[in-house]
Amino acid sequence: MSDIDNDTDAPEISAEIPTVHDCIAGESCGQTVVFPTREQYVDLVKKLADDGYSMIIDLCGVDYLEYMDRPLPDDIVAERFEVVVNLLDITHRRRIRLRVQVPEAEPTIPTLFDVHPGAEAYERETYDMFGVVFTEHPDMTRILMPEDWVGHPLRKDYAVGKIPVQFKGAHS
Fold first, then answer.
1. Is residue 11 part of a domain?
2. Is 108 part of a structural domain of the chain?
3. For a surface tag, which of 49, 53, 81, 104 has the fewest beta carbons within 10 Å of its beta carbon?
4. Which of 125, 129, 80, 85 is nearest to 106 (CA)?
5. How far apart are CA 101 and CA 9, in angstroms?
6. 128: CATH
7. Total tally of structural domains belonging to the chain
8. How confident is the model at residue 9 (pLDDT cuts 50, 70, 90)?
């Protein structure tokens, strides 16, 4: 039995179709996993912050170019990209994971900066590596790659080994 099942302060999960604040939910390795749409994403994070999930501990992108048939809840349509967010409730010692599907044709998602300012660097890294744009982000610029770098190196279709890595200040 998971911590969520015993914790009366946990977000309510219905018995029929598991949901958290009207978003489809499930469980993986004893952790609640919620699948909000891009439209539900920021509102869900605000509600979870009100529930005590006051710290963002990770936000990353995933490119599922070659794994589009991955297991997802029935009502969730698999998209090429996912943004994965892990939130922590320090008071109740709980974690919750959000998995948001982001389509290749429109790789955008709202920023969490207004709710969790600590998301700023995570979102820039996800943009830099995967090309997912966080709308309304205060500084949507590259964070790891040079500003003139073309492409997003962690995309599965990014050409490997054709462009030499250049380090700032290195002499050849």
1. no
2. yes
3. 104
4. 80
5. 27
6. 3.30.460.80
7. 1
8. low
Cα–Cα nearest to 78, from 63, 97, 59, 60: 63
Q: Measure Cα distances from 53 to 96, 144, 157, 161 in Å.
A: 8, 28, 35, 41
Rounded to an integer, what distance in angstroms lies between the CA atom of residue 133 and that of residue 125?
10
81 within some domain: yes
Give residue-wise pLDDT tens across range 69-85: 999 999 999 999 999 99
Residue at 94 is within a domain: yes
